[in-house]
Structures are given as structure tokens and as C-alpha cells.
Amino acid sequence: NELQNLNISNLNQLITLSCSNNLLSNINMPTSNNLQSINCSGNLLTNINFSYYVNLNSINCSFNSFTSNDFSNLINLNLLNCGGTSLNSLNLTNLPNLTSLQVFNGLLTQLDVNNSIQLSTLEIYNCDNINQLDISNLINLTTFRITFCENLQSLDMSNNQNLTLVRINSNNALQSVNLKNGSIQDIDGMFFDSSLPNLIYFCADEDEISILQSELNNFYSNNTISVNSYCSFTPGGNYNTITGLSQFDINNNGCDINDFAFQYLGLDVSFNAVSTNSSVYTNSLGNYSLFTNQIGTYELSPNLENPTYFIVNPNPASVNIPVIDNSTTTQNFCITANGVHPDLEIVIAPITP
Asked: Which three-class secondary structure string do you get for 79-105?
């Protein structure tokens, strides 16, 4: 319709209100608080005192002209859709039963959802002013989408063990993602695309690293994204760095600046002659970095699919860290061919069922 005003102030027994897609700039609301569901989306409304209606379990106020609103203390609220508004803040405190939240708003500068631990669905679009997002406390989250948040730089999804569907795309500034949650994700339910041009780090559980790396390789032909289980790209506190370059000695005359980078070389890490059950990998440029915060001797042992085909120098590499002083130690690896080994493997796999 094309309603501009709506007066329902005398409908004190009203439970459900649906007046979407009108030209409403004002609604004279009931004085009772029996309302349980409101859908007023697609209007010109600037304010409704939702917090008065404490029995509300569903609110869809999307695509209106709200600049502020208070949704706090709606203890029965299950569903909230406040997308397409001009809200510059969103108060979600004391919403213990909120299970579904949709936000698409270019003016929000932060979003705190960690008190709504019953959330199972969270969808965020066009939130250009949000730089960091931490949803790690949402242990019941199953569906998460975040799209077109142009300035989002870091995303923390750790502890979200029940995630079955994740969509992360068209977030141009995103640099790091933390999905280390102690649970094997259904990677088929995750979606990335090539519109994450600044993504440099993805933290995940050990058993997911190789799968995630493969998925990312599908979208980035020159993939330089680090994927491992160290969840801080730059650690906090004091630490030393062991870093270096792995190269393939194409001419068998020693590695120099003319030789190729040896990509994605796995280096098994031991500490004081005891395996740490962890690895660090070189990226597409042949570079690796291992962060350390313990004094002792670290051994880096190259892990090759066909170790007899190559000679690696050194193997293993032994690096002594006598003091934690935030210094950097360089340890390079030079790989040469060990004889001639014709070795061809062809894998044919369908890309659709």
C-alpha cells in the first residue's frame, strides 16, 4: 500500500503487526505491551520504542530511517532484522534468547554480539565502518555470512564449534581470519572467493590446514596466504623470529638470487630434540617465519613427499635461541636434485557431481 500514517493505539490486544512496504513515517502504537511480532520494514520510520514491548519475539524494522534505537532487555526476542537503516549504534545487551540477527548498515562502527550466546544465525552486510569483529563467544552459531564490509580487517570465529555454513566474500580489507575452534568444519559449507585481495593469514585447527590451503588455492592463482595453527599473525609479548628462504638450486651450483623459490615446503619443528607435533610452511615466495618465546634449540626438518629425490642443506637446521629479545634469526634452505627421477602423476576429479 501507500499508507503514510497508521493509528493502532487502541488495539491493546494486538499480538502481530505487519505493515511493511508502505510510506509510513509514523505509527501510533498500542499502549499495552502484548505485541509479540512486528514487521514494519520498507517504510520511512525514524523511531519506535521497541524496548517497551517486552513480549516481542520477532522484529523486522529493516529499510527504514532509524538513526537510533534500543533493542536491549527484550528478553523474549528471537529474531531481529535491522538492516538497511541509518543506525550508528546497536544495543544488544540482555537479549538471552536472540537466535537470528541480520545487520546491513553502513554507519555502524562496532558490533558486539558476544552476550547473545544463543545466536545460531548471524548475517552482516555493508557494514563498512567495522574494522574488527569478534564472534568467538557464539558457541551455538551454525550459519554466518559477512559480505561487503569494506574496512573489516580481522575476523575471530574461534570457539564456534557448531558452524556448518560460512560465507566470507567481498571484504576487500580483510587480512586475518581465526577459525581455530577445536572442531572439524564441513569445508564444503565454507565459501571464499577472489574478492579478498588483502587476506594474508588464516588460522585453523591442524587437521584443516591442508584442506583450507587447497580451497584458497582454487581462488588465488598466486596464493601467498599463510594457513597454520598459530592464531596470532604477529604474536603479543616478547618473542624471537626464525625466518628464511627456501630455494631450488636449478644449476646445481649453490643457491643464489637467480634460483627459484621452493614453494610450500613443510618444516617440522622440534624443540630441544623433542617433536612439537607442529610445522611451519614456506609461502609462494619461499619465505617462512616461526615465532618463538622459549629459550632452547629449535630444529627445522624439511618434510618432502619424495625425500630421496632431493638433497636439502641443511637437514635438519638447528637454531639456538639463547635469549628472548625480540631478535630475528635467519636460516635459509637450499634444495638440489638428487639424480633424475621421471615421476608423473595424473589426477582426474569431477568438479560437479
From this structure: EEECCCCCCCCCECCCCCCCCEEEEEC
